[in-house]
Design goal:
Elements (H helix, E strand, L loop, with lengths): L15 E8 L5 E8 L2 H6 L30 H8 L4 H7 L1 H7 L8 E9 L6 E7 L4 E4 L25 E5 L2 E6 L13 E3 L8 E3 L12 E5 L2 E5 L8 H5 L1 E4 L12 E2 L13 E6 L2 E5 L9 E5 L4 E4 L2 H6 L4 E3 L8 E5 L4 E6 L4 E7 L8 E5 L2 E5 L5 E6 L7 H6 L10 E5 L4 E10 L6
Parallel strand pairs: 10-14
Antiparallel strand pairs: 1-2, 3-4, 3-26, 4-5, 6-7, 7-8, 8-9, 10-11, 11-12, 12-13, 14-15, 15-16, 16-17, 18-19, 19-20, 20-21, 22-23, 23-24, 24-25
Length: 436
Amino acid sequence: MMAAAKRPYCKPPPPTTTTTAITSSSGQNHKRLRPSLPAAAAMDGGMEEEAVAPPPTTTMTTTTPPQPLLPGLPDHLAQLCLSPLPPRLLHAVCRPWRRLMYTPSFPPFLSLYALLDDADADAGVSFAAYDPLAGRWDALPSPPMPSPPPMLWHPSFLARRLPLQSVAAAGRLVLVSGSTQSLHPALSRPLVFDPAAPTPRWQLGPRIPLSPRRWCAAGAARGRVFVAGGVGAGYDPAVARSGATWDPAASPPPAAAWEPIPPLRDGRFSRDAAEAVCSGGKVCMVNLRTPGAKEGAVFDLRAGRWEDMPPGMLAGWKGPAAASPPDDGETIYVVDEERGALTAYDWGADRWRTVAESDRLKGAAEMTVAGGKACVVAPGGGKVLIVDTPPPPPPPAARRESWAAPPPPPRMWEVAAPGGKRVVSLHVLPRMTRPE
């Protein structure tokens, strides 16, 4: 009996390698190597010893169709179905939904934006946004700083920071004024960052009226940037009494010019960088951020005139101040730096009520309010304290009629600053868009 003829045996070639790019949370590209099997092995799940390998010059590629947001629906209809869901739920379900949350077409959630200082070296200022859902800080592009650039510290002021004043208005971060090392105004035009743009970047706004300035009162008023007072290269009474507003949402930013407002009664708002906070159609500010005898002023946006600050408001203004946005009542909040108390102003009673009190709030440097929360920079800038801001209590008559227990104290938690950085100032704005 003849022996059976053996089938020819072809030794398979050694596995090749393909490179897959993996993007880490820090934004750096890392490369991972993995073996690439021939097409037959990919389909069958392995290679038999007797299988014949394809020629070396043959290349076979397979494409995986993109995963739909919701099976059976086009993505544009799926977006309409997903947009009412809470952002935290969307972030927890799957990767396609997380990617959708950061696209320009999807309703944005709120994030914390910080101006940062290097804790170890004179590396200049930087900016970052804290994503509360991902729990991480994302660096912003560097703004096109002029030469010489703004300074945060100066040898002549050993215990005092030179402010780089920033404002959150119309969903944008706006740098308004700053000081150079020679103590001259650093910004002749504001710098504007729109986090919701398809490609977030900084743009230049129109020139500030009369003269560039520093140590002014700056804030947001009904979606517009508001500045008043300040000092230029030298003291000028006209600049110290002047004020103006500007809409940063104009496209492009330089298209809209600053609109002047009636001058201040005097030039006392040129001694320090002050917050200007808007509540009830009125912009309120004091002339000093440091402890001491303060003077206040109120600008009525509807009437277009300056008024005296109510005595109760002035007496309780003992630290950094911020106002909640219009859709959250425009309540003015102040942190009493000495007492460590977060207080809210009542226009009707001309008094401040205590919202929260803690030793962790003592010495607060900056604050912002949005989304039912007050964000306070702790002393030293190493962390941000987040405090719930509950609604105002009902009137006494309503409290007598209800048998409800008093509300619990507001929650308070911390967010650490990015490694090696200190938080100098902060704002709440919509989250940044991310590339696909």
